[in-house]
Amino acid sequence: MAEREAAKQPKILSFSCARPTLAEIDLNALVANYQALRALAVEAEFMAVVKADAYGHGAVEVSHALAREGCRHFGVATLGEAKELRAAGLDERIYLMGGFFAQEAPELVELDIVPFVADQSALPVLDSAAAGRAGGFPIHLKLDTGATRLGITVEDLPDAIQTLKHCRHLTVEGVCTLLASAADPSSPVTQRQLGAFDQGVEMLRCAGLAPRYLHVANSAATVLRADAHFDMIRVGLALYGLPPVPAVVNTVKLTPVMTFKTRLLQVKRVPAGTGVSYGHTFVTRRPSVIGVMPVGYADGYRRGLQHGGEVLIRGHRAPVVGAVCMDLTMVDLTEVPGAAAGDPVVLWGGSGEDAISANDVAHLVGTISYELLCTVGRRVPRVYRN
Q: For residue 327, what are the domain limits?
């Protein structure tokens, strides 16, 4: 009797180490993705987009791993991100893609960060900041060809060219644009944008400017639109092993770089009719085994996963049950034989012959994998393996 009563008691693992929720980053997979994508555009330079902490993978570690493989161009969104890479010893080209404010111009020049210039008014500011620099300061003009985000429209480009003629210390090294519908290779929007881009480049060349780099291709266009490769490709999501659209899978083999994982913190048996978590949004219909995981929405594991989310435990899929909390999430382990506190849990990524794709998890909660990866919390350690 005493043994049966003891078996009913919840089992909890006493951890002597740090909280076991972590994001495992496979740098071998990263390098393999880089090489596979690089092979699609061998004539173009490769810009690795490492903004937003390399989409949650760790910008410093990712950048150094790619630099060792020969990557010489890295794209960030903010000056702070660029400063982090410089402070970590990255000497390769860093491009500021997300715009900047006037007061940031001197530091851009000092740190040798190449800005995407998307507004004519930024040109005199940069020119003044670069006055003491020998050899001219390189910039990339960003054209708005139809995405209606940052960029100089083709209609406003003649005025920008006139301003450039008075800038003695700037060199228009590149011209770029953002494709709004690259995920659809047959989109007429992309064709119109490429036409507007060609028109803008021709206007610059007629004005005596000779940009070395023309670049428009993101991950999708890199894989699906060879006519958009030009002199440089800018690759983000695909580099981290996730296809931006299903058609990409048919062209290039990608391996997910991040595995989001944790361990079971507690396992308990409960009778039928037991409510689980806040609001009892899930009530057991049978005697059940419920596991508690030390991960929640503060870590980037989204609340919407209580509706259809699954995790991998001991080679089985276990459904998420009840409301996902800030720090804890519950799963139904009734169909997972022998599940015990301390068992590894894969939230997304591969485990044995099975895998849960971050793309599928994102779809389940009504978002995109870009957002999902970027919201894996700062308190989740990144563990790197080569």
A: 2-22+258-385
